[in-house]
Amino acid sequence: MDQITAPFRIAADPWYRPVADEVALYEAAYAAKMPVMLKGPTGCGKTRFVEHMAWRLGKPLVTVSCNEDMTASDLVGRFLLDAEGTRWQDGPLTFAARHGAICYLDEVVEARQDTTVVIHPLTDNRRVLPLEKKGELLRAHPDFHLVISYNPGYQSLMKDLKQSTKQRFGALDFTYPDHAVEVEIVAHETGIDRGLADKLVSIAERARNLKGHGLDEGISTRMLVHAGGLIAQGVAPVPACRMALVRPITDDPDMRDALDAAVTTFF
């Protein structure tokens, strides 16, 4: 069993800076076999949190990046043809349920609703997964845990989770950390000094105030880490910020000028 799940185990601690009681709440949810939903903007640490918790609990982690073309078979599995005939290939959800892994469905709202309903039997007291094509009713391993994430800022009438899905999960809200915590994260992840990290976070805070006023999303913590990484490689702060913070999030000339001005204010 260990050999089967070994590729999905996280060997080194993915450093995560708790901002509240999310670690304790997740551990309690895992012990209670309660599925967990992570809600928050892109690049705020949801995926890193799941990786850290998998490492902390010593469990394998199976991650699925959801998309609108993903079918139920992509999650559950399908029969394949090979030289010896047909054989069944577990999908990532089935693999995790069979072998006691944490299954993380990233940006689950991107998947079609007729695909996401396959998780329903795993998210209540039954904890089973019907493999209709195979004629098997898979009972989830006791260590199996299901985690989904999505960005509420992107939801719409066409892309949102059904209430019948939402109410099967406990939810943890994520957002960008407070200033001092975000400075600590950027400095730790990139190796730059806290003075530089403080300036990067200040630029991000200004940009986040423009969300809904010309920007669909603000500058994320992930983007700050990218900028800090460039600076750590010897790139001057202004071009590093333009490449990692400004150019990726907008093509509007006026908005770029406004963000460039924010960068030059601090550098």
Automatic annotation (TrEMBL):
Keyword Ribonucleoprotein (UniProt): no
Domain CbbQ/NirQ/NorQ C-terminal residue range list: 182-265
Domain of life: Bacteria
Keywords recorded for this protein, A-Z: ATP-binding, Nucleotide-binding
Example GO molecular function: ATP hydrolysis activity
Residue ranges occupied by any ATPase dynein-related AAA domain in the UniProt entry: 35-169
Keyword DNA-binding attached: no
Pfam families for this protein: AAA_5, CbbQ_C
Family classification: Belongs to the CbbQ/NirQ/NorQ/GpvN family.
Name of the protein described by the UniProt record: AAA family ATPase
Origin species: Fuscovulum blasticum DSM 2131
